[in-house]
Amino acid sequence: MKENTQDLIGNVGSAQANMTNTTTLSNRGAVVSVRGSVIDIKFDSHLPAIYSLLHAKDGKIAIEVLAQLDAHCVRGIALTPTEGLVRGSVAEDTGGPLRAPVGKGTLSRMFDVFGNAIDRQPAPADVQWRTVHRDPPALERRSTKSEIFETGIKVIDVLVPLERGGKAGLFGGAGVGKTVLLTEMIHNVVEHQKGVSVFCGIGERCREGEELYSGMKAAGVLPNMVMVFGQMNEPPGSRFRVGLAALTMAEYFRDDEHRDVLLLIDNIFRFIQAGMEVSGLMGQMPSRLGYQPTMGTELSGLEERIANTDTGAITSIQAVYVPADDLTDPAAVHTFSHLSTSIVLSRKRASEGLYPSIDLLQSNSKMATPGIVGERHYRLAQEIRRTLAQYEDLKDIIAMLGLEQLAPEDRKVVARARRLERFLTQPFFATEQFSGIKGKIVSLKDSLDGCERILRDEFKDYPESALYMIGSIDEAKGKAKNGKPGAEAGPASNAGAKGDLKSEPKPKPEVEVAAADAHAS
Fold first, then answer.
1. Does residue 28 have an active-site annotation?
2. Which terminus, N or C, of the chain has the lesser number of Cβ atoms within 10 Å?
3. Which of 204, 251, 303, 464 is catalytic?
4. Is the pLDDT of residue 81 over 90?
5. If pLDDT is split at 50, 70 and 90, which confidence band does 324 have?
6. Is 204 an annotated catalytic residue?
7. What pTM, to 2 d.p., does this model score?
8. Cβ-Cβ contacts under 8 Å for 98 (sequence gap 6 or more)
9. Are 331 and 295 in contact (CB under 8 A)?
10. Which is the catalytic residue, given 109, 130, 167, 178?
11. Among this protein's residues, is 251 annotated catalytic?
12. Active site residue: 2, 42, 205, 412, which one?
């Protein structure tokens, strides 16, 4: 994909030129200053409007106007590399802003920020071109109904349910599983809900894009997907606008086709980072920790267009890189304010082998209320959180004194919490080739039933490993009976693994295993 993108840089304006070929390019200016990606251009006749797209060097260089310096000069940011651009070069006004292709012809295709196809196939024919700078839907068109968006992932559907037409964020540092979780949601939603999915890669690796494209093609879900990429080797101006291009494509399916759309963004932090780079290049005074002073406005301009209307909905799931795992970073704080669901990924849980590595106590959803999810679901979720919080409080005592020093009631809480943690793990379709375990989709009903039965101590005599990496709770009985080898036993300690896999385990050895594991951790 990287090679193909480099080939397109030479004629990056081709798709935009096709779209504007009816426009007379009579408004021409001359480049008066080139400082990296920042270019000043002088126009004698007519000054281009803010966000106008300019072309230089026969369409090889694209420039977006971001400021008007005086009556004759504008300052723009280059969306492509500026090699070969010198003072005196001619810049032509295209007569409009950056545009993106929309329509059914975009399905199963992969594009860059300019609408050029980068999947080594012919350019799509049946498309329209629309500006990427659009207003969010009016309040009178928005739907006020709150509905659950089921994903088939146990821990998300039970504890942090997503909202149809809402925004969910996957927060975490490097290597905790954001992209894997995002890929799994694509698989589950596109294959089983038959919606349209738009994937937007902002500042990510081209390798990830190629793997995603190949994986979705092999899974047979590519016909209902559109992919848009602004790779990390592209200039900041390009990465800054690729999110708006993907959102414009998604809005077509919501407003014109009246379909539900799943918009996946990986990674929203790279959008903020690109804005920070553009702001610095434009000479703006940085704000806290070096972020741009306009970060809140720029993020709102993207997030407010993701909305639920009376004809369709755009449901967005966004990976959010958290610098140094610091959730008080301004980028994370500003993103939190726009989300209906915040899913925090934990490095500690990932190191324990508990996947998806979601921090069950820090993650939250505004949908988890009795009026939306129902009384039973709400009560179970609260009881699960209470049990896990009690276990967290007891961990220090267990580490210092051992499990045998706890009161009998506290031992039961520990046993329930450890079984809940393992039951809320799940094998993913996205990781089948690495784990060797077939992926599972679990309905909300089966997830709730399993949690309720664990809280009633129905599985207190079963080894914890029987609940690890399964689908519905009934699989635990067959797993305990068969006595799976230790490779699939889960994150239990080696010292207790053999005793943990007996076909008829006793409650007492199980307590000892829990204590050994707590000391080991």
1. no
2. C
3. 204
4. yes
5. confident
6. yes
7. 0.82
8. 16, 51, 53, 62, 64, 79, 113, 114, 131, 132, 133, 241, 245
9. yes
10. 178
11. no
12. 205
